[in-house]
Amino acid sequence: MRKQYVIGNWKMNLAWEEVLDLCGELKDFMHSLPKTISIGVTPSSPYIPVVMPLLPAHIKVGSQMVSAMESGACTGQVSAKQLDSLGTVFTLIGHSESRALWNESDQELAQKVSQSLETQLEVVFCIGESLEVRESGDYLSFLMHQIKAGLFHLDAKQMKRVILAYEPIWAIGTGKSAQPNQIQEVHQALRGMIATQYGEEVANSFSILYGGSVKPENAAGTFALEDVDGALVGGASLKAQSFAAIAEACVSQKSI
Ligand code: PGA
């Protein structure tokens, strides 16, 4: 059975007082969830060590970013080792916003993946096509390129510490999630790509999350899809009630 994840990407939102409120509310709303679902949140870097003791123990804290460099003269960066030493459990890599804002190259992203896996961090590797690529019809080969460039230098053992998040750029923050048939088509194709490279065993235990306007209203329909193993949630993760409703939908659809 594949592991199911619901991860809240807080992005560059929430002032400190709001973080305190959200952590308190998450304690109230999430306490009844079974431990078989993996819940995570990614606060902004300075909040990471401070929110850890404020959250229920089963909510894992991840980072929104990590440096491609190991250490040293890299002003403004945070290394995988530093994150790991704080007890950070995972890091996002390749989110479309950071790819675009910081002009991250495929090579840099592959380096970030390697740096992270040298520590205890798990990697949530994000991929997704723009509307232009979607409309060109060539989205599967575009996504194949993103996976190949970012992940296929890993061996099978390392690959088992990677979670993939498919986030079509046209669905992020738009309020308009991809349609279930569009999501399933891509997730099934991605699992096939992993199987071709790493074999069926790795592919069948590999978690692939969907992200892009996941909300309580569309969560059950998304989690009902065979090849969806959870969600990366932006806007709806900033309110404990909607984040908890999404996690509950995952628990009930996946019978975990
Ligand atoms: P959204 O963001 O849920 O607000 O669309 C998802 C993401 O960017 O990870």
Task: Give an account of the 3D structure.
44% of the residues lie in helices and 16% in strands. The protein has one domain (5-51, 60-65, 77-254): Alpha-Beta Barrel (TIM Barrel). The radius of gyration is 17 Å and the shape is globular. The chain starts with a strand and ends with a helix. It has 12 helices and 8 strands. It has an 8-stranded parallel barrel, surrounded by 4 helices. With 256 residues, it is an alpha/beta fold. It binds 2-phosphoglycolic acid. 2-phosphoglycolic acid binds at residues 9, 167, 172-173, 211-214, 232-236.
Summarize the structure.
The chain is α/β, with parallel strands linked by helices. The protein is built from twelve helices and eight strands. It has a single domain (5-51, 60-65, 77-254), classed as TIM Barrel.
List how many beta strands DSSP finds: 8
**How many domains, in number, for the residues?**
1
Shape estimate: globular
Structural class based on helices, strands and sheet pairing: alpha/beta
How is the largest sheet built, in terms of strand order? 1-2-3-4-5-6-7-8
Unreliable sequence segments: none
Report the portion of residues in β strands. 15-25%
The number of helical runs is 12
> So what's the CATH class?
Alpha Beta
Subunit organisation of the chains: single chain
What is the CATH superfamily? Aldolase class I
In helices, the fraction of residues equals: 40-55%
Radius of gyration: 17 Å
Report the CATH architecture: Alpha-Beta Barrel
Average pLDDT reading: 97
